[in-house]
Design goal:
Oligomer: single chain
Radius of gyration: 24 Å
Strand content: 15-25%
Order of helices and strands: HHEEEEEHHEEEEEEEHHEEEEEEEE
Helix content: 10-25%
Largest sheet: 4 strands, antiparallel
Number of strands: 20
Shape: globular
Structural class: alpha+beta
Amino acid sequence: MKRIVKPKKKTSIVFGFCCVLIVIVLLLSSGKNSRLNSIVHNDKSNLDYPIVGTNQSKFYDNSTEIKAPAIGDDFYGQNANYPGNIPKYKDNDDGTVTDLVTGLMWQQSPDTNGDGRITASDKMTYKEAAAGAASFNLGGYTDWRLPTIKEQFSLIVFSGVDPSGYNSSSLEGLIPFIDTDYFKFAYGDTSARERIIDSQYASSNMYVGGDLLFGVNFADGRIKGYGLRMPFGPGDKTFFVTYVRGNKNYGINNFEDNGNGTISDKATGLMWMHNDNQKGILWQEALNYAENYEFAGYSDWRLPNVKELQSIVDYSRSPNTSESAAIDPLFNCSEIINEAGQKDYPFYWSSTTHSNWSTEAKGRNASYVSFGRAMGYMDGKWMDVHGAGAQRSDPKIGDPKDWPKGHGPQGDAQRINNYVRLVRDLK
């Protein structure tokens, strides 16, 4: 017979204490990083690159706000019908904010003077912004970096309204394209002869097709390529800067060709069509096309929101450098002839309305991403003014011939009939 030896009570207590001690040590060993790693919340928490939703909850037709359309109604399938990962943040009370969807931690304010005010004097040149990350210390962290354009764009929300055309000196009624409950924000400093819309934030991405720096404008809700020199007057152009840390995989795609005309991105949890629709159509037609499309055994295809669409831009490619669209070669991309007569690649519609402050233009535009040159008419000719990978907006209806020299100060091409690339969620 085996002798069963019962452990003494004291031994059990010691053993239990050791277990507790080990757990405490493990928690402490993760240091401050535990604050970043243990609070990430998204619908698919295993993803390296979860796309944050746009926060767009209002519905629009071709020009105005409407009540929520039901399945089968006109304008069903727009962004507010598919909200995605709702933006969630945590104020860490030390000048940093953690994005609970992406796992990225952000500098809360671009204020560089420490006076609590955000003015033109807080802006930096690209060289200053790139160099400043190495010595930046905030919240006890020193591993800050200048964000990529995909990291910077993760913060944009399309509950904002575009102030373009706004002439009042008052900012009442304007809503920026960033969550001001968590992040400090300021419009352009008019006392320093800036425009209200001059709230461009620098990224680390230079445009490979020209001497432009991609940045996100949280005042007017766009990605553009900006020249490094001031467009009017001497000196280098300056930008607001918020550094980021954590989740170094954010923005890196993990594409897999499924061999059936679809491509999965294991990083974002999205499945894409290998081909686009091969022709330009109006925004409402794009919504209808998506909602009625069946392919590869799936009937839940949809028009992507603008942040999903931007996630598949390949900023290492451009028509000028790789002679291709700014997208992974796994995808087929239609060719077009642009306004300058060059072989080029199209703008793609998103499901996201780009709302304007004015009543008559409130829902007139929808956001797009340019996978080819983002053309504008300047100095008497058409040229690539914003770069492949820009995100802007076009009218949902109308005739492009009404804008023979584009629109706005850089003569932005108005492509009202845009192409479509459909998406669905991986289950």
